[in-house]
User: Fold this.
Amino acid sequence: MLANVMMDYLIDWNLGQKVSVLTVDNCSTNNAMISIILDWLSSDSLLLNGDMFHMRCSAHILNLIVKHGLDVINDSIERIQSSVSYWTASPKREERFFETFRQLNIQITKKLVLDCKTGWNSTYLMIKSALIYKTVFPSLRQRDVQYKRVPTEEDWVLAKEISDMLEVFYLATLQFSGTKYPTADTYLPNVCNIRCVISQWSTSPIEEIR
Assistant:
């Protein structure tokens, strides 16, 4: 079905002899689609006779890498996740949260962001927003006896490291996912940068980072 629709568009747009590569996510359905399309297209018109036709999506590959990494360290940020969930659970709690940080003279109005289990980028945004208010959470514990899972200083140190790590992938993914500019030229610089920072992380004194 997907292959039929794709070929209909290629024919309609007169691109049957002009396609060099097709970029799709890494899933078995797409593998089957690519195989069918290759059978329809003339190998003479394809780059390297079609050997390079199936181009894996860089943003999707990064997504898989980060998801696997977060599966390993998710327990380490559980208290931060629990705290953000607690203070965004209702408008009343959110108001109490903002009232507390205003009393502490914190001149920021950025809201806490609760992560979504299916999107690692939301975990990055959650940690980034929580780090801004890390001094607020201990004060909230004194004002609300039901709030018990206050992040420790060690939690915040690790969260900062994780945030810095995720930012590298977050920015690379934004570039790879651009729709209004060419993205092929951004691939090598970003991959080289990721390779360098992963090498640095492998020698981190923090076990979860290694």
